[in-house]
Specification:
The chain is α/β, with parallel strands linked by helices and 328 residues long. The chain has helices at 25-33, 46-54, 62-70, 89-101, 116-119, 133-146, 166-175, 198-207, 221-231, 248-252, 261-279, 281-295, 302-308, 315-323; strands at residues 3-5, 8-10, 14-16, 44-45, 81-85, 106-111, 151-158, 180-187, 212-215, 235-238. Flavin mononucleotide binds at residues 17-22, 42-43, 83, 110, 112-113, 154, 184, 192, 215-218, 238-241.
Length: 328
């Protein structure tokens, strides 16, 4: 089955899975340039969206600004895929309408996040909703009915190894009008690591007619191929395998993989420049430390270099440190 979501037709490549603190516009741009089919923003709370939308003056408050930054696109980003989370169907529908107005081409619903602040008592969002499949159906249906753009969802195999209800949840999502599902082929218990369960993913692919995007554990083209072949999924999404390695998307699409050290340093510099242009120098310098650690491994003095990144307190210090990397 080929991957089509609304008017968007995708090839055989991979998409960038949403990652909080990582999949912001600069990184999404680099992944798109390397051939990612599309990328997804990090998860955004429906309450945060409604905070600024219900009272326009909240747009200027710190919290409003923070949420609005999550809705930024890199120039020309299309489709712009925004992920929302929440558990109240009406609020999710209202937030989806706001996000559509802000320019989303596709709205993705999060039913898979295991982070404590998302699933804890009182919140009960993200993967916690897998324990309440009918509520997942209500949320999805209300959102689908509220917006014109396609709605997709991301979920897991289940809450635990003994509670694998991924098939039931995927069917409910399909019945609610969701146009594609991304399945992280792990349970909530596993968090973001450990073996992926391709048999369970294959059972979900078999059970629904909408496209299923498989996700989990892909760190090279062979992993992507294996997941497709073993499950028949219509597409694959890469998360952690893309950190410091946006080239994984060209590799999966049949092109070249990561370049040599000089190429990786050049991309790190470009990433830094894009980040400064998007968020300003202070935030860029702090946030780019982790990206630099991911890009720049495997050379003489790499460990010492990564230690010194903490001293890179401004742009000049950061670029000066990059200059010290031995390239010949
Ligand atoms: C740091 C981090 C942040 C994440 N944030 C999100 C998120 O905002 N929304 C979401 O649906 N999944 C999120 N995930 C899960 C990933 O999208 C993905 O499902 C998971 O990492 C498994 O794929 P992988 O093995 O390719 O990394 C996050 C994962 C990580 C490691």
């Amino acid at each position: 089955m080929s991957l089509r979501i609304g008017e968007f037709e995708f090839g055989d490549g991979a998409s960038l899975a949403p990652m909080a603190g990582v999949t912001n516009p600069p990184f999404r741009q680099l992944c798109a340039e390397s051939g990612a089919m599309f990328s997804v923003t990090e998860l955004i709370s429906c309450h945060a969206v409604l905070f600024f939308s219900r009272r326009p003056r909240n747009r200027d408050r710190k919290r409003g600004q923070k949420t609005l930054a999550l809705l930024d696109r890199y120039p020309g980003e299309r489709p712009f895929v925004v992920q929302l989370y929440g558990k109240e169907p009406e609020l999710m529908a209202e937030a989806a309408m706001v996000v559509e107005q802000e320019g989303a081409d596709i709205i993705d619903l999060n039913f898979g996040c295991p982070a404590r602040k998302v699933i804890r008592a009182g919140e009960g969002c993200g993967v916690a909703l897998m324990r309440h499949p009918p509520l997942i159906g209500d949320i999805a249906r209300r959102v689908v009915d509220a917006v014109k753009v396609p709605v997709t969802a991301k979920t897991r195999l289940g809450y635990s190894i003994d509670q694998r209800n991924g098939v039931e949840v995927a069917k409910i999502l399909e019945g609610s009008g969701v146009q594609a599902v991304t399945i992280h082929a792990r349970t909530r218990e596993q968090g973001h690591s450990g073996p992926v369960h391709l048999d369970d993913l294959a059972a979900i692919v078999e059970a629904v007619r909408i496209p299923v995007i498989g996700n989990g554990g892909i760190t090279c083209a062979a992993d992507a191929r294996r997941m497709r072949e073993a499950t028949g999924c219509a597409g694959v999404a890469v998360g952690q395998g893309a950190k410091g390695n946006p080239w994984i998307f060209s590799e999966i699409a049949g092109g070249s993989g990561a370049p040599d050290l000089a190429g990786r340093v050049a991309t790190c510099r470009r990433h830094l420049a894009l980040f400064v242009a998007w968020a300003g120098e202070p935030l860029a310098v702090v946030e780019m430390r982790k990206h630099a650690c991911w890009y720049l491994k495997g050379f003489d003095g790499a460990a010492a270099f990564r230690k010194r990144l903490g001293e890179a307190v401004d742009l000049a210090a950061f670029t000066g440190l990059l200059d010290t990397i031995p390239l010949s």
